[in-house]
Amino acid sequence: MYIAMNRFKVLPGAEAEFEALWLNRDSKLGDVPGFVEFHMLRGPAREGHTLYSSHTIWQSLAAFQAWTKSEAFRAAHGSAGGTRPLYEGHPEIEGFEVIQTIGAAD
């Protein structure tokens, strides 16, 4: 498995608008080969921003890379930055290969 995360530093007062963009988008991830799960996470409010992270789980690094090169990816990200600035800087992407998973029944 592979986990891809983006970290966003959302500007004070822009949290509701940022969340609405994510909650109301037309996600096509469920149709993407190798996609497992998506989470949008709200973190702590800090001085100057609130931390958010998108978190996707993929069957493999290859599946994630194929998604980033697909037409579906371009369509999903085509309007990014189309609204007023909601976060500072660019999202910070981090990727991780899973080396261990422990479930509740384990």
TrEMBL record:
Single GO MF annotation: monooxygenase activity
Cross-referenced InterPro entries: ABM_dom, Dimeric_a/b-barrel, Heme-degrading_MO
UniProt KW keywords: Monooxygenase, Oxidoreductase
ABM domain boundaries: 2-95
Membrane-traversing stretches: none
PANTHER family attached to this UniProt entry: SIGNAL TRANSDUCTION PROTEIN TRAP
Protein name as it appears in the record: Antibiotic biosynthesis monooxygenase
Organism: Aurantimonas marianensis
